[in-house]
């Protein structure tokens, strides 16, 4: 088995494992994400689950939503399933920092619904925006309902770039909790990618090199 075939096999196995784990957790938004992550946020008066899904590159199969045109080779789509799981209080904000300062090409809410989740429990934020420093989604009780216990939403944004862990936060007013979640990152320069691949190929050769006689 060649090095390239081995990498492809490992990637396929990892993707399958992530899809199975996500399905077992009861949340799957569709498509073939390249990265799936779960985080739990809690404050003095709320508890929330956030499932993050990253889709990258032209070959990515996206969730079934007409607002998602196919990605090109340098684009990534981020989806966040937010669920208020506690019975302690409401949530009015999901935000994440954008340290790579990549302006999202689209930010909004998605119509996809994970299997088994009731549509009447979907509560979309009324404000969503992205900038070179921050991507945020806000529920506002002046214009709509807050994300109450049991409510959920699917949020998205699209960028030209890859992904990395960034600071994400969920909460109500000043009652916030923060964790690292997937966010935008620059695409590695071709020279950097070439150096990394070269190092991986050279590593087995270095290990096979016989020791010098003393």
Structure description:
The protein is of the alpha+beta class and 214 residues long. The chain has a single domain, classed as Immunoglobulin-like (Sandwich), CATH 2.60.40. The protein has 2 helices and 10 strands; from the N terminus they run αββββββββββα. The strands form 2 sheets. A 5-stranded antiparallel beta sheet has the order 1-2-3-8-5, with helices on one face. Strands 6-7-4-9-10 form a 5-stranded antiparallel beta sheet, with no helix packed on it. It is globular. The N terminus is likely disordered.
* Biggest sheet overview: 5 strands, antiparallel
Estimated share of beta-strand residues: 35-45%
What is the CATH fold-level name? Immunoglobulin-like
What is the ordering of alpha helices and beta strands? HEEEEEEEEEEH
Summary keywords:
five-stranded antiparallel sheet, Immunoglobulin-like, 214 residues, alpha+beta, globular
In short:
This protein is α+β, with helices and mostly antiparallel strands and 214 residues long. Helix content is 19%, strand content 36%.
